[in-house]
Design a protein that fits this description.
Layout (H helix, E strand, L loop, with lengths): L2 E4 L2 E3 L4 E3 L1 E5 L2 E6 L9 E4 L4 E4 L1 E6 L4 E2 L2 E2 L4 H10 L2 E8 L7 H12 L6 E7 L5 H13 L3 E5 L3 H4 L3 H14 L2 E5 L3 H13 L8 H4 L2 H18 L2 E4 L5 H12 L3 E7 H5 L25 H11 L5 E3 L31 H10 L6 H15 L17 E11 L18 E11 L2 E5 L2 E2 L7
Parallel strand pairs: 1-6, 2-7, 8-11, 11-12, 12-13, 13-14, 14-15, 15-16, 16-17
Antiparallel strand pairs: 1-4, 2-3, 4-5, 7-18, 9-10, 18-19, 19-20, 20-21
Helix pairs in contact: 8-9
Bound molecules: manganese (II) ion (MN) (2 copies).
Length: 450
Amino acid sequence: MPVLVKGGEIITATERYAADIWCAGETITRIAPNIQPPPGAEVIDAAAKYVFPGFVDPHVHIYLPCLGTLAKDSHATASQAALVGGTTTLIEVLGPDRSQDPQEGFELWLDKAQGHCACDFTFHMTVSRYDGRVEKQLREIVRHGLSSFKVYLAYKDAFGLSDRELYLTLRLARELGVITAAHCENAELVAELQSQQLAEGKTGPEWHHESRPPVIEAEGVHHLLTFAKLLGAHVYIVHLSCAEALREVAVGKASGAKVWAETLIQYLLLDKSYAERPNFEGAKYVMSPPLRERRHQEILWGALRENEINTLASDHAPFDFATQKRLGVNDFTQIPNGLPAIEDRVNMLHTYGVKPGWLDLHRFVEVASTQAAKLFGLYPRKGAIRPGSDADLVIYDPTYRGTISAGRQVMNVDYNPFEGMGIEGRPQAVILRGQVVAREGRFIGQPGRG
Ligand code: MN
Ligand code: MN
């Protein structure tokens, strides 16, 4: 059924105006004032609401083997949580480890997602090994349409590339016109600090931060940018968490590196005291890089506003507290890393970024949607409201007031890191390629349509 969005205020990364939006089939076909609905159209009343382009989460994990367990969400539950929260497109990290071929990983992840994911999706292709066989397969995968690689400077055993492999990966990325996303932490330093800590009996989650201090992340950024500069390759620093790493990005940029940076909603709102909560509750907040001291938050907000940080992601990685996080009860290095945030990223950014004035509404749209669409080859199908774009729209009620609660969430995990925090604003309706898929916190779409 064709959809008419009527009476809303359209807000994109660059524009703000009142108009109606006519969606026929899966795309936006007309934007004009006072479009009269033909018989048979579904009319969405958007009076007093914002109309945003569908949000893009540029960094999530769904099918995620980690320390012998699997992240909790399926593609069905994660994508429905995404849609309820206004995210219509996600980019999942497709992560074969060093023992798997890229092609094998690509087929496995695609099989998990296709027919199960309710929102649109694409992948970052992890490169965890580099040789002639891998190179041939990567070329084929890029030909298939993927537009980014992912590399880990951390996690040496599973995903770590040697410097030679990193060099060859970035060289191939440069040749193919692919951007490379990178997790920047020095793996060997982390491993060394962790083994010292465990030898000293420092086994609780409160020690996680000390095993990966800001200087180790900054070194990772510097290391990556050395290679990127040598090769002229485009790189994207995922989950930048601290002032020290941000400084390395600025230094790299000033000397010619083609670098973009992402931060996470978690780093903007939570700090390391959460991971220090007693009775192992801190394990809920164990992620890498770790939550930092509170002083970093203002610096990250300012950088996000000034476009020194370009995008905001969730790095969604849900593990149950009661069972999975407990795997590390005697050794924090065995706590599965990650926090669930795919559902709440947009509302938390609106509440704690827009409302207090850190970001205006255009910058909000840009960091949570448009910039990621541009970097990863999705724009202007995604991240825009214009004729010809996919009809992915979020009808947003800025007057809504609510409280985050794991009991009411769509994500399939037993806690929420933002439990009890207030939200101001939420999607009243979410449209994915011309179909209404979520209303007021409930998924009403077609499973597996992404
Ligand atoms: Mn990571
Ligand atoms: Mn990640």
